[in-house]
Amino acid sequence: MNDLYFKGLYELSLLIEKFFSVLGLQSLVKKDSSGFKTFLDFKLGEVDGKPITLFKIFISIVFLAAGIWLSRILIRIIRNKFLIRFVENESAAHAIENISFYIMVTFFALVSLQVANIPITVFTLVGGAFALAFGLGAQNLTNNFVSGIILLIERPVKIGDFVQVGDVYGRVEDIGMRATKINSLYNVHLIVPNSILAQQNVKNLTHNSKRIKSEIKVGVSYGTDIDLTKKILLESASENVATLKSREPIVIFESFGDSALEFSLLFDIKLNSLLDMRLVNSAIRSTINTKFKENGIVIAFPQRDVHVHLPEELREKFKKVS
Questions:
Q1: Are residues 197 and 87 in the same domain?
Q2: What are 22-50's pLDDT values in tens digits?
Q3: Which residues of 194-274 form beta strands (DSSP E)?
């Protein structure tokens, strides 16, 4: 099977060399000075009786560049004619597009090696030295590239997801070969190496669905009617048109705080943009504040009781003054 594979690549390389001969590259060399022809025919080495010349290296580089250019055109055709019509999920289409491009480029790279008479088996001879040099010089680049492939296949983070990386929230716009582009709330693009997304903790707000649960915390003064407080919080969330009605909002009496009775209001919203959650929370907080004022409920604030102990002499003096 391997012999047939290498034979096929070799025959393809001969056809490519003849194609460039038809274009007149070899005739140009013959017409030029003998010195220039000698330079192009300079033998860099020989593998299995096949010479490796500068001319063949040049042809292989041109072929690889043309292959990358052709791959981009084919990917554009696949995207416009197939992916847009049959693949509705944007992130899945992007993954298919990128993986297909990598496969095409790999194919053209293998063929370009055959054009230059460099068999793949050569790398087994220099594999140790190549691996050492490559590992030292491009370790991070390789790590990010492999991590990008993992992201495209496993899809823990997809295009369109809302994620938190460190202290920054943003929407994933593109997963490239080396890094992922994330657009924050303030329209600032964050370029994150793929290895960070694949190996470190990343909060994905919309991994399975764009429906997320938001939370508003509020504290009221001691002595406030708990049932009335819960009723007002539930009404404030239910009356907002942006909250999803498929799940009713929930109020949790969290704890007896130092200065307040602490409550949490939980409700579902559909996150279409990073601004959605902040706008909905802001509107519900305004409604809560208005309803609290109407019902005489006070939002608590930190309070401290200070007790001063004075000696008897000072107490007597204060009594006389008062």
A1: no
A2: 444 455 444 444 554 555 555 656 666 66
A3: 203-204, 211-220, 250-256, 261-270
For the whole prediction, is pTM greater than 0.90?
Answer: no
270 is in which domain, residue-wise? 211-294
In angstroms, rounded to a whole number, what is the distance separating the alpha carbons of residues 110 and 116? 10
Cβ atoms of residues 83 and 92 within 8 Å: no
For residues 34 and 115, state if they share a domain.
Answer: yes
Q: Which secondary structure element, helix H or strand E, spans residue 13, and what is its range?
A: helix 2-22
Q: Are residues 193 and 236 in the same domain?
A: no
Contact 255, 193 (CB under 8 A): no
What total of structural domains would you count in the chain? 3
Same domain, 23 and 119: yes
Q: Is 234 helix (H, G, I), strand (E, B) or coil?
A: helix
Q: What is d(CA 32, CA 36) in angstroms, rounded to the nearest whole number? A: 7
121 and 19 in a common domain: yes
- For 144-183, the DSSP string reads HHHHHHHHHHH-SS-TT-EEEETTEEEEEEEE-SSEEEEE
